């Protein structure tokens, strides 16, 4: 009698053959993304080497937490500004630690971390950045700024990872990271100021998240404003008035609708109407981004926190939509791009 218990069935073989092209395409997509990331990292390191002027690095330019996998070609939202040998991180979506490391900026120069609001694509790696940054040379006097309850969140995270920190502190003979100096921001106005930069914030509309913040960084040689996540808002134009660069979230609505339907068909447990209602109430179509930038009179508009976070929309499409109203320089953000 022949033992067939371990022999593959005809159905299994056919299913495997049918899936093979899909798996191969996914692997090729991942390989292409890896190569592109390596190239972008090398370009960023070159652009930042011995730099004197203030530079902005777009660590992650994709919005949202949905659509994970090979189709998502952008890391979640995060940025780092390098000025006079000091680094300032804004937002900590998935990927911020690896992306920061890829720039070649030492963790020892990280001075402050800013959070715009408490959605996962903006804060999920905040705690890990503190611990991993500390192991890699981040100073214990690093400061954090963001909406409440950032202080409680920080304390909870440090309590959860105390054992891990203590093990490393013992192994590597390091002073343990026990706490972080946190300043919660719940109103418009000055956030902080040091020898490099003055940072101010306003409250934006991103329901039901309250408060959600937009920041402006005024360095000695340039000013950079960030919209954060927000519905179209005149207050952002006023906050960014005369800035050298405005980094604004952008949504390409027709592509988003098609992308959302496709994700739902693949099993994402949301309703199309709910997703689109949220997006239209909380985010800014790219055409309106151009209008806001023109009203602000900024020199350069940087489109980031792009939704959908794929390469399915050409740079020309993003740029032309914003250019309906904005007549200055338009940059379509890419991960690890230096501006």
Report on this structure:
This protein is an alpha/beta fold. The protein has one domain (30-338): Metallo-beta-lactamase, Chain A (4-Layer Sandwich), CATH 3.60.15. 39% of the residues lie in helices and 24% in strands. The chain contains eleven helices and 14 strands. It has helices at residues 10-48, 96-103, 120-123, 126-135, 150-160, 162-172, 234-239, 253-265, 272-282, 286-296, 315-322, and strands at 55-60, 78-83, 86-92, 110-114, 143-146, 181-184, 189-193, 197-206, 209-219, 223-226, 245-251, 300-307, 329-332, 337-338. The strands form two sheets. Strands 6-5-4-3-2-1-14 form a seven-stranded mixed sheet. Strands 7-8-9-10-11-12-13 form a seven-stranded mixed sheet.
Give a short summary of the structure.
The chain is built from eleven helices and 14 strands. By secondary structure, the protein is α/β, with parallel strands linked by helices. It has one domain: 4-Layer Sandwich (Metallo-beta-lactamase, Chain A).
- Rounded to an integer in angstroms, the radius of gyration calculated over CA atoms is 22 Å
The CATH homologous superfamily corresponds to Ribonuclease Z/Hydroxyacylglutathione hydrolase-like
The residue ranges in which pLDDT falls below 50 over 5 or more consecutive positions are: 1-8, 12-19
Instruction: Quickly give the structural class.
Output: alpha/beta
Number of beta-strand segments: 14
Instruction: Report the sheet with the most strands, covering strand number, pairing sense and barrel closure.
Output: 7 strands, mixed
Global shape: globular
CATH level 1 class label: Alpha Beta
The domain count comes to 1
Query: If helices are DSSP runs of H or I spanning 4 or more residues, what is the number of helices?
Result: 11
What is the CATH architecture term?
Answer: 4-Layer Sandwich
Reading side by side through the largest sheet, how are the strands ordered? 6-5-4-3-2-1-14
State the CATH topology. Metallo-beta-lactamase, Chain A
Mean pLDDT: 91
Give the H and E element order.
Answer: HEEEHEHHEHHEEEEEHEHHHEHEE
Helicity range: 25-40%
Distance between the termini: 71 Å
How big a fraction of the residues is strand? 15-25%
């Amino acid at each position: 009698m022949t033992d067939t218990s371990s022999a593959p069935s005809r159905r299994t073989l056919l299913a495997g053959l049918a899936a093979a092209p899909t798996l191969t395409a996914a692997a090729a997509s991942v390989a292409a993304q890896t190569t592109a990331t390596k190239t972008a990292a090398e370009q960023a390191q070159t652009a930042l080497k011995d730099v004197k002027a203030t530079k902005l690095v777009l660590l992650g330019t994709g919005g949202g937490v949905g659509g994970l996998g090979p189709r998502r070609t952008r890391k979640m939202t995060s940025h780092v500004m390098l000025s006079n040998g000091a680094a300032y991180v804004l937002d900590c979506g998935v990927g911020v630690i690896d992306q920061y490391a890829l720039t070649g900026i030492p963790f020892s120069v990280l001075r402050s971390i800013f959070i715009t609001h408490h959605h996962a694509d903006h804060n999920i790696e905040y705690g890990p950045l503190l611990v991993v940054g500390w192991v890699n040379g981040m100073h214990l006097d690093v400061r954090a700024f963001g909406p409440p309850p950032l202080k409680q969140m920080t304390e909870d995270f440090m309590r959860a990872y105390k054992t891990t920190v203590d093990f490393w502190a013992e192994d590597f003979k390091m002073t343990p990271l026990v706490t972080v100096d946190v300043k919660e921001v719940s109103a418009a106005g000055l956030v902080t100021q040091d020898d490099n930069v003055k940072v101010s914030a306003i409250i934006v509309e991103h329901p039901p998240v309250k408060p959600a913040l937009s920041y402006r960084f005024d360095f000695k040689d340039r000013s950079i404003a960030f919209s954060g996540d927000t519905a179209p808002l005149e207050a952002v134009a006023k906050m960014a008035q005369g800035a050298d660069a405005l980094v604004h979230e952008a949504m390409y609505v027709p592509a988003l609708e098609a992308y959302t339907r496709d994700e739902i068909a693949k099993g994402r447990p949301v309703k199309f109407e709910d997703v689109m209602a949220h997006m239209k109430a909380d985010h800014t179509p790219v055409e309106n981004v151009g209008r806001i930038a023109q009203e602000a009179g900024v020199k350069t508009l940087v489109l980031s926190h792009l939704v959908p976070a794929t390469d399915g929309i050409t740079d020309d499409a993003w740029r032309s939509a914003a250019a309906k109203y904005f007549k200055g320089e338009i940059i379509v953000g890419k991960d690890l791009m230096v501006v």
